Amino acid sequence: MSTKKALPEALRALLPFVRPYWKAVALALLFLGLAAICTLAIPLALRELVDTALAALPADRPTILRERFGWLMGISIATGLLTSARFYMVSWLGERVTADLRDAVYAHLLRQDALFFESLPTGDVLSRLVADTTLVQSVVGSSLSMGLRNAVLFVGGMVMLILASPMISLSVLGAIGGVVLPAILIGRRVRRLSRASQDRVADASAMAGETLGAIAIVQAFGQEVREATRFAQATQRAFATAIRRTQVRAALTAFVIVAIFAALVGGLYLGTQAVVRGELGAGTLGQSVILIAMVASSAAVLAEVWGELLRAAGAIERLIEWLQTRPSIVSPAHPARLPLDPEGGYQGGNAEGNAEGHAGGHAGGLTVEFDAVSFWYPSRPATPAMQSVSLRLERGETVALVGPSGAGKSTLLKLLLRFYDPSTGVIRLDGVATQDLGLETLRACMALVPQEPVIFSANASDNIRYGRPEATDAEVEAAARAAQAHEFIARLPQGYATPLGERGVRLSGGQRQRIAIARAIIRNAPLLLLDEATSSLDAENERAVQNALEAAMQGRTTLVIAHRLATVQRANRIIVLDQGQVVEAGTHLELIARNGLYARLAELQFAA
User: pTM of the predicted model, to two decimals?
Assistant: First the structure.
């Protein structure tokens, strides 16, 4: 996209966010226009002051001076008040538009599919979400207003200067041209260095974030000095780039100031000569001097604002591109429905909603069917992650998935949750294809306990309640007791109201796992997905939590992933996956008797 097209297109893209606040825009423009008129009136008032006072009789001069100074003071006060009102309205508009844009982008990002985040790291998304919207705020709330104001002052000042003294105006126009063109060229260099400086700072910030996120490993391996040195080198590179940018910007500032004063002095010289020759009045000379300074400074500001607008165009385009990105995983236009009771639980029945009389929130679970499902990750199209997998889970059945790493166990859960769609084949819940269900309906049927438990920086109660936000305190405590989490939560400084820190840093691995299990229990969904749900627990806690999970499994369909085979022996069936294919299926004893892959895995683990 060329520069000529980028800026207007980028600014037009903001119109949907600005349009709802047209009244604020109208007020801002009104205050801007009135303030500009008052500013342009100051040279006229000065001319009247000088010319009238000089032409008046000595006896009348004190009265005339008081009157003209009163007008000048009134105009100055009006200019200050109107400028303040304009600043407030434009700043309010910038903050409001930026907040709406940030909200819209964030809400849109939350609906993107897994492929989007595969190609764009989450850290980069968050960085742009903050940095780019902040840049938009500076443009809408400041730069654009300054540009409009100085454009009005430049045009109005030039018109008044031409009317006052055509000879001086021609010399000023030539000087302004000499300021603007070099300022634009130098400004491009400043923008490139500004971008490079931001990149270097971002590199240092990313390095710091990565190191602090793994501080235990850094300290355990004694790498504090090495990491501090690496960070110092990164900040030194950022400093060097910033200094180059500052040098160029300082040169630009010096050039603009010298050029403006040169135009001012040159115009003053020509005007003085005209006054001496009697061709120009002293008041008109004073008016022209102020107009020259006003026009020259407006031209310099316009050059700088143009650079800021060009710099912001890229940020606006990136944000709008994100808003225009459509996820590949979406709800169908006319989704089928699985009957959900008012409490958010599932009540078994067909897609048309005819209940089959199951009582309770989870109503006996639901059936799950994988019918000849194959899948390739978009980032790895040459290697199949799953090949012709056919599998059926009956209502209320507990099925365990085992197999070596990379066998496709977690992929199966991702497909079931519809983070991805199968490349071929179909997945059904109670006979309805998952792709025919709304995403909200589909995922409301499931409760997930991931291998790496996700703990938010909220308190313990809110972390558990994340599974069902409307749950009462009593229900939260009941879920915590079922997950064997109540005792350690009660010992926290503020009990359930204790903030758990970013990523649950105040908890052990086993405690984080039990919070995640409580979150799944309180959801009361008909399908329970356990991805290594007890992997972070010691033997004693694992037994207690396993008992709690078995109680929670009653009446639910449960899919369990486990590397530790001791946790899946009591499953109704065990499915063995290898290289994305089902290679064995049966109970623990049946699979041991077959002496296949499961038997070898069991022998290695139980022997150890």
Answer: 0.71
